[in-house]
Amino acid sequence: MPEGHTIHRLAERHRELFAGRAVRVSSPQGRFAAGARRIDGRVLESTEAHGKHLLHHYAGGDTLHIHLGLYGKFTEGDGPPPREWGEIRLRMVNDEHWLDLRGPAACELLDPGEVAALHARLGPDPLVPDSDGDSAYRIIRKSGRTLMGLLMDQSVVAGAGLIYVTEALFRAGLPPTMTGKSLSHAQWQEIWADLRMLMRTGVAVGRIDTVHSAHMPEAMGRPPRVDRHGGEVYVYRRTGQPCLVCDTPVRTAVLNARNAYWCPVCQQAA
């Protein structure tokens, strides 16, 4: 599932391609046919992302809400759209560009009240400049759940997925099994600031890089990481490999129904 930086990149891209102009909207697959007819020909006023949720705001008050889930994917191009193929849930077209969406977990229209309710059920997004990180800490400090589980809970922090959470905890020197109520406010401020920095970098470069310059391949004389997610990381999906800082083999275990990765030496709770 794409992490929050990808959704913010999509919001920026769709704003660039379509905002401020009328858009022709259809649903070749048919599953979004009624919604497509409702917004077809309207002006796309703005786009935004909140965590892993993408929102297209149309003139007249309707908002297109998209959640890619595990399988959702956009394709785009310039000029006339190509011949339809596959299960296209949503097609957007103007005189210069086209955009197709396949396989999303959600593709629906929301009214203003439903948009407000969506925002209300999501935690603060590190990529939104005025997000209140302390609102997340007020939940975390009262919880006996693991830090990994809390940080991946989209109602606590919106947008950070397994990679960002795993890597932020390594960089903070905290184990994923540590409980929320054991986390100090100073530790939380460090994690929040780091998530904001890492995810902003992800928006800028289009991939997740979490290692400091001293631990990059060229600095350490090691081969670059080869993984479908791309980017250089400390512990994510590096089970059994030496920690880039202390050489201890990286451990993994199932935690909160997800694979957790950590260094048992670098990540020891105080």
Automatic annotation (TrEMBL):
Domain Formamidopyrimidine-DNA glycosylase catalytic: 2-91
Presence of keyword DNA damage: yes
UniProt keyword Chloroplast, yes or no: no
Coiled-coil stretches: none
Family note: Belongs to the FPG family.
Name listed for the protein in its UniProt record: DNA-(apurinic or apyrimidinic site) lyase
Organism: Dactylosporangium roseum
Domain FPG-type: 234-268
Keywords, comma-separated and alphabetical: DNA damage, DNA repair, DNA-binding, Glycosidase, Hydrolase, Lyase, Metal-binding, Multifunctional enzyme, Zinc, Zinc-finger
Alphabetized InterPro entries for the sequence: FPG_cat (IPR012319), FPG_N (IPR035937), H2TH_FPG (IPR015886), Ribosomal_uS13-like_H2TH (IPR010979), Znf_DNA_glyclase/AP_lyase (IPR000214), Znf_FPG/IleRS (IPR010663)
E.C. number: 4.2.99.18
Alphabetical list of SUPFAM superfamilies matching this protein: Glucocorticoid receptor-like (DNA-binding domain) (SSF57716), N-terminal domain of MutM-like DNA repair proteins (SSF81624), S13-like H2TH domain (SSF46946)
